[in-house]
Amino acid sequence: MKTEHIKPIEITAVVITVSSTRTEENDTSGKAIRDLLTAGGYRVVFSVIVKDDRQAIRAALVTALGKADAVVLNGGTGLTPDDCTIEAVEPFFEKRMEGFGELFRMLSFDEIGTSALLSRATAGIVGGRAVFCLPGSTGAVTLATGKIIVPELRHIISHSRG
Q1: SS3 20
Q2: What pTM does this model have?
Q3: What is the Cα–Cα distance from 148 to 89, expressed in whole angstroms?
Q4: Are 78 and 112 in contact (CB under 8 A)?
Q5: In 3-state terms, what secondary structure has residue 124?
Q6: Are the C-beta atoms of 43 and 10 separated by less than 8 Å?
Q7: Are 112 and 140 within 8 A, CB to CB?
């Protein structure tokens, strides 16, 4: 990657955990995302847990977009009837990062086999900000955040802002 494509800017992030059962004490996935982003040089300015509810997810996303350059949601991306993160978030996307979900599923396949196809992980740009939707498992968020988001976030934000 050419260094002229990456701007030396501070990047802030928000972590949103989507779950009807997790709490601050047992949200290991949200903690893993925060820890990996921080270790990667990004500042996490806010985190929240919301229920599996489209309106709650959208309200948290709107708040997050007002606070940070990147938003990482985890949970609610599967195939169960209450999984609605993708449906709540995708209408906000101005541009999709199709390769994010493809790359995540490819890397996941190496770890969990064909079960990777159950993931609807996705990402996009909203108002020059990056939004990532990840599965809720700690393994999945560690993989996505550590191997894709942390290494590419500054590059993504540099391009999305022109």
Answers
A1: coil
A2: 0.95
A3: 20
A4: no
A5: strand
A6: yes
A7: no
